[in-house]
Structures are given as C-alpha cells and as structure tokens.
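User: Fold this one for me? It's NAD(P)-binding domain-containing protein.
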Amino acid sequence: MSAAEHPLHAVLGAGPAGTALAGELARRGHAVRLVSRSVPDSAVEGIERYAADVSTADGALAAVEGAAVVYHCVNVDYHRQVEVMPRVQRAVLTAVETTGARLVVLDTLYPYGPTQGEAMTEDTPWRATSRKGRMRAELDERYLDAHRAGRARVVLGRSADFVGPGVLNSTLGGAVFPGALTGGEVLGMGDIDLPHSYTDIRDVATGLATLGALPEGDGRVWHLPTAPAVTTREIHTMIEERVGRPLRRVVLPEPRPFGPFDASFMAEYAEMFYQHTEPQIVDSTAFTQAFGVHPTPLAATLDATVEWYRGLLAGARG
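Assistant: Here's what I get for NAD(P)-binding domain-containing protein.
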C-alpha cells in the first residue's frame, strides 16, 4: 500500500485520550505517530512513538511532519495550563498552517462556564468566568478564526469529564474505583444528587477519529459522544452493584485535597468547582445525528472500568 492510501495521522499527547485515540486509529488501518515530551509507552503494535516538545515551533513542526491529520490531545499540569496551553496552540497551529495538515482538537466544556443547569449543546453561549475557562475560550476562537480565514482546516471535539479504562486523574477515576474495589474511601464532589455527564474515553477516541476521517465536520465545535447524564449518587450505586460492597463515600462540599488530588491541584481546581454545584449535562445528539456514532451506555462503561481497575490493582499486588 502506498503512503497516499494510508496517510499518517499524528496524535499529540500520550495521556489517556491520546493513547486511546492512537489505538483506535491503528485499528482503523492508519499509520499513526504518537507524540509526547518523552518517548511514550504504547502497547499497540505498529504505532510510531516520537518525542517532541510541541510547545515550541521546531518541536511542533517536527512532530507533525508528513501527517495528513493532526490530533491535539496535549494537556499539562493543571497549575500550568493558563501559561502553557496558549504556547502549545501557537506552535501547533503554525505547524499545521505550514504543512497543510487538518487539525482535530480535543476540547473541554470550560468555555461554557456556569450554565445554571442548562443542558449544554454546541449552541450554548460561551460564558466562562474562570481563568482557565476564559483561556480555553480564547484558544477556541483562534482555532475557528484560523479556519474561517483559510489558514488551516480545524475541528474541535468537546468532551465531558473522562471515565473508562486507563483514566486515573478524573473525578470518576483514581479517587473512586480503587477505593470501591478495596473497601477504601471513595470521592464524591459537591452535590452528588445533581446529574453529571461523563464521556467514555473510548468514545473520545472514536469521536476524534471520526472527525479526523470526515472533513465535512470541519470549522466548528462538536460534542463527542456522551451518555445521558445521571447523578453521582446513581453512578456510585451502579459501582456498588459491580464490586459487591457498599462504598465508603467521602463527599467534599468544597475543594480540598483527597487521594490523587493534592493541595496544588485543588487550589487550581477551586474556580472550576461550580461543575459540582450545578448540573453538568452534555447533549451530544448533534454528533450522533451527523455521523451515526452513539455513546457507549454508562453501564457498559462502568463494567469495563471496574475490570480495568481490577487488573491494575492485581498488577500492583503482583
């Protein structure tokens, strides 16, 4: 097969989303380059692993060289986001403008800001009040401006909080499942009787890969496939059914250190805590209607996540 028949797809960022996406792209038959600051681990055979600092112009250009599609899944330490993410954007956007690659950006809900419980669609106004939310909104405007000006071909996929195999640093991740499986403490944030959307990390990968394959989606924001929201208490009950024991739940009415979330993280997260004191409801109907991709049912997501954490804990004991 020629390179034209199997164009290179470059995934920037080797966290849970980038790693899951690289695997999904490889399963679809693409040549894949997975990029991180240090050579990333990858269990998927055939994925090229590449080290580059994509916050620099030279690093970003080298990382995307030869790629037909570039996926920006880079994240940085929470307390450095406002400083570093704009640098990453400038470097990556300049690189794809130079090479002509399409750019698929993994995005957050932060630009919407508080919604007073209104379900978020792609038409929801951007009313961010936090530093990180305003920063994300400014970056997104620059992406869309570059597309409208014809400098680059860009599409944004927004995700709710991650959940699923491989996801540790999420409010439904390492602060919940290990305690659920071992009888330890389990975190709940804010009002656990409010609905809160989570996006299966595998749906993040499928959604981004779909946007990478279908340029007709370019030039706008899409909500990646996300299961209907239920309350955190309902999710905890579903986890109890899977682990066969009641959860020792600790509910934080305000941000303070807990488990994997240290004082530095929680100090930065305080401005985002509104996400746990009002409903967080993501509507991804537009994506399903446009591309025929449905979210994984929450029950199946929790099944897979519990099994993944069982294996993780067994490996730690072994």
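One thing worth pointing out: DSSP finds ten helices and 13 strands in the chain.
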